[in-house]
Specification:
mainly alpha, single chain, three-stranded antiparallel sheet, 34 helices, 785 residues, 17 strands
């Protein structure tokens, strides 16, 4: 150092010492300093940050310099959170200056809350290059996990240094993969060797797994080798290893030759067969291979024009001859019903030879015409007429009408009540108009009430309801079924043209015929019913007279039966006999009344064939003024109180306009004689021992009591017990002996020898019982106690 320089240093040190030892003329307190700085900040004359302890200020430039210094000291990468305790500045201030630094200095980057400079990134690039040279391949995903940096940021920095610091190249199909030239050359050679050795279609996944090749690189190299004709092959199935298939051309040539020959000889190609040849997507292959050939692509195969022309000719012949054809047997065995259905639809839609033909597809694979189906209806015409006559004659048609009427009354009951109110209001209004004439000088007039001769109810609504019901009888017959689907199918199978038809075809035809046959049957039943009504209307008066005689006779029998029952002392026997009497003679009387009355309302049935349920349904369909009395009589006939039944019978006869004739005493005297003759005829006609015993006991009871007892066979023991005290001992023993033989016959089933002995004894005993029952007479009949 020169002497002059040293002298200058000493001078400056002396001045500094004097400045330190001198005292200031004016001093600022800490509070004044704070106020001055705050004022300057408010006036925006200075821009500073407070430290976290609030004791110091720092300018923006100084903070930026300190941040850069710390970045350098930490090797070019530091987190903003680590700078907070180091610089004693808030995170917000550090973050704002870090953003400013990254914007003003291109070599420094703010990434995910960290400051990183290019030197550090170069160091990372060197590490990546070293790793890449060792492994030959590296992915951005791995680098992201290793360096904890965003994927896009790492990808951007690698691209900048690719070819300089990082020696490698980027994958064209996957930009997140990088590899070296050596790695690419090694795998290209491996892939070329593997593909050159393959002579049959092989799954790409199998090739990759066996040779441990990278999947992404495989497709790129394979496409390059195929495009440059280095490998004579093709890839099918896309770029997914588990779907794609490698097909050598040597195999493709033989495969295509086989496929072309098979299609030419057989007229179709089965997808399953093509799959067995190694084709992953047979349908796509066929579309590509036979682009200029007209093929129909089905679910399981594709069909050529030869088979389609055969099917078209068969369908046309069936339509012209008004017959049917089953298409599936005409096709090869590999075709299923779905394929046959698609072929039929294609032929009917695109054929030029079938315009306007009335084709009808039955099931999946059968074709016929509507004219053929309609011709089959003619087979059922005589059956419809016969069945219509049967339902009208048996009363099923009338019962169906009753059911329909009941359904109508239930559904329209609220509407009918509203109509009744409206009619009452109209009648009142007309009555008021009739009493008062027009104008101030109008006279008072009276309206004449018209009497309805055949009024069935209390008002007009019942009669109108009946008229509507008769007019709509055809709709009521919808409940009657002409023939079930199974029976229709059986009739069709007997036809020669359908003898070899499949069951599904016949059943489908039956379902199509059912609605029209049902409609025709309903119309035929309606016409038959109207014919019966017109034929029987002239016999109405004669029927009424016959009803009077029959009802009067039934009532006499019931009353005599009631007297006969009183001879039995047991109340339980009396109740059982009363129930039997009402169940037989009482039910017959109810059936006669129901049958007669319902003929006017078209709801009736034959009285001899009416069951309890059928009778109840018919009664429910009658007008209310008749329905209620008959309902009470019907209920009484199911009980055991004869007095109640007779009372209900009087009410029902009045409601039904049935007036009984006055009793004829002379005629009544002959009734017991007639009843005795009837029993004698029944006894002589009976051959069975049990029936002979039954009729003989009833005849002896009539002789003893002068009354007719209505009793079934199970009451015979009780009647014999009653007669024991009123008959000679010989007759009583005779009856008891025959009763014992009848019981022994019933209990000796299986023992033929014993049965033969018993029957021999009964044959010997029956004539004696007949003679005793007919010959016995009692001069004085017993009286009831």
């Amino acid at each position: 150092m020169a002497s002059s320089d040293w002298i200058e240093v000493q001078r400056l040190a002396a001045e500094f010492q004097r400045a330190q030892l001198s005292s200031a003329l004016q001093k600022l307190s800490e509070r004044n300093c704070i106020e001055i700085v705050s004022k300057l900040i408010d006036l925006k004359l200075i821009d500073v940050f407070y430290t976290n302890d609030g004791k110091e200020y720092i300018t923006l430039e100084q903070l930026s310099r300190e941040i850069c210094d710390e970045l350098y000291l930490h090797g070019g990468r530091i987190s903003l959170t680590d700078l907070v305790p180091i610089l004693n500045i808030s995170y917000h201030a550090i973050e704002s200056r870090a953003q400013n630094i990254s914007q003003t200095k291109p070599e420094i980057h703010l990434v995910s809350g960290q400051l990183i400079d290019d030197d550090h990134l170069d160091h990372i690039a060197e590490e990546i290059n070293e790793n890449l040279q060792q492994t030959g391949q590296i992915t951005v995903v791995e680098l992201t996990k290793q360096y904890e940096l965003p994927m896009e940021f790492i990808l951007q920095q690698i691209r900048k240094r690719l070819g300089t610091i990082i020696q490698g190249q980027q994958d064209k199909y996957d930009h997140h993969v990088f590899f070296t030239e050596g790695f690419l050359a090694r795998n290209r050679a491996r892939i070329r060797g593997a593909l050159s050795a393959i002579t049959v279609p092989t799954s790409v996944s199998a090739i990759i797994a066996q040779n441990k090749l990278p999947e992404r690189l495989f497709f790129a190299v394979a496409d390059e080798l195929i495009s440059t004709k280095r490998i004579q092959a093709s890839l099918s199935g896309g770029r997914q290893a588990n779907v794609a298939t490698f097909i050598p051309d040597v195999h493709s040539r033989s495969q295509n030759e086989w496929i072309d020959n098979f299609l030419k000889q057989n007229g179709y190609l089965e997808y399953a067969a093509l799959t067995r040849l190694g084709l992953g997507d047979p349908k796509s292959f066929c579309r590509k291979r036979f682009r200029e050939t007209s093929l129909l692509y089905l679910s399981s195969c594709c069909v050529g024009s030869y088979i389609l022309q055969q099917i078209e000719a068969a369908v046309e012949e069936a339509l012209v001859s008004q017959s049917w054809v089953e298409v599936l047997p005409l096709l090869p065995s590999v075709f299923d019903e779905e394929d046959a259905e698609q072929i039929i639809q294609h032929v009917l839609k695109n054929s030029q030879n079938l315009p306007g033909k009335d084709a009808l597809v039955i099931g999946h694979s059968a074709v016929t015409s509507n004219a053929y189906v309609q011709n089959l209806r003619l087979i059922f015409k005589p059956m419809i007429e016969e069945k219509a006559s049967e339902v009208v004659a048996s009363g099923d048609y009338l019962q169906a009408l009753a059911d329909q009427r009941n359904a109508k009354e239930k559904s329209f009951k609220p509407e009918q009540s509203n109509e009744k109110k409206d009619r009452k209001d109209e009648r009142r209004k007309k009555a008021n108009e009739g009493k008062l004439g027009g104008g101030t000088q109008g006279r008072e007039t009276k309206t004449r009430a018209t009497k309805k001769k055949y009024q069935k109810g209390k008002n007009d609504s019942d009669d109108e309801g009946e008229e509507e019901f008769v007019g709509g009888s055809s709709s009521a017959s919808t409940e009657l079924q002409f023939m079930s689907l199974d029976k229709i199918s059986n009739v069709l199978r007997k036809q020669e043209s359908l003898s070899d038809a499949p069951d599904e075809f016949v059943e489908d035809i039956a379902q199509r015929l059912y609605p029209s046959l049902q409609s025709s049957f309903q119309e035929a039943a309606r016409l038959a019913f109207e014919a019966v009504l017109s034929a029987t209307s002239g016999q109405r008066r004669q029927t009424h007279s016959e009803l009077q005689n029959k009802v009067q006779l039934l009532l006499q029998n019931i009353k005599q039966g009631e007297k006969a029952i009183q001879f039995f002392a047991s109340l339980d026997i009396q109740q059982q006999l009363s129930r039997h009497l009402l169940k037989t003679a009482g039910s017959e009387l109810v059936n006669e009344l129901v049958s007669y009355v319902s003929q006017d309302t078209n709801v009736a049935n034959d009285s001899k064939d009416l069951s309890l349920e059928a009778r109840q349904k018919i009664i429910n369909g009658l007008p209310q003024n008749i329905r209620v009395p008959l309902q009470g009589l019907h209920k009484a006939s199911q009980g055991s109180i004869i007095e109640e039944f007779l009372s209900e019978a009087d009410v029902a006869l009045t409601a039904c306009d049935v007036v009984l004739r006055k009793a004829d005493k002379k005629k009544d005297k002959t009734i017991p004689i007639q009843q005795r003759h009837v029993l004698i005829e029944q006894l002589n006609a009976a051959q069975d021992a049990a029936l002979v015993l039954h009729v003989a006991v009833l005849l002896l009871f009539h002789t003893v009591t002068q009354t007719v007892l209505n009793a079934s066979g199970r009451f015979v023991p009780y009647i014999i017990s009653f007669l024991q005290s009123h008959l000679p001992q010989s007759i009583g023993e005779l009856l008891s002996e025959l009763q014992g033989l009848v019981i022994q016959e019933l209990t000796s089933k299986g023992d033929e020898e014993l049965l033969e002995t018993v029957r021999q004894k009964m044959e010997n005993l029956i004539p004696r019982v007949r003679v005793a029952a007919v010959a016995y007479k009692k001069s004085i009949a017993i009286t009831q106690e």
